[in-house]
Specification:
- It is a single chain.
- This protein is 44% helix and 26% strand.
- It has a 4-stranded mixed β-sheet, with helices on one face.
- It has one domain: Glutaredoxin (3-Layer(aba) Sandwich).
- It contains 3 helices and 4 strands, in the order E-H-E-H-E-E-H.
């Protein structure tokens, strides 16, 4: 199981694209995704508003902005072996 925290907000089309990618790989790679709406928390909003979507992995790896498929797959693979 690969745990991912997914920081996003409504109306962010990069976030929508990242979520579609995650959903496509969820079953194949055993992803446990926790989606966090940054608009619900002022501190998170200030921290991530210019970087969303942000994907944080258990090993400290983080992907943000326009997330490329190959970068996501590399991070998933790295976190599956830990």
């Amino acid at each position: 199981m690969v745990s991912i925290t997914f920081y996003a907000k409504e109306g962010c089309w990069f976030c929508d694209m990242a979520e579609e990618m995650l959903n496509g790989y969820r079953e194949k790679y055993g992803l446990a995704v926790t989606k966090v709406d940054i608009a619900a928390d002022e501190e998170l909003y200030q921290l991530y508003r210019f970087d969303i979507p942000v994907l944080e992995f258990a090993d400290g790896t983080a992907l943000h902005g326009r997330i490329r498929k190959q970068d996501l797959l590399a991070a998933i693979t790295q976190n599956r072996t830990q």
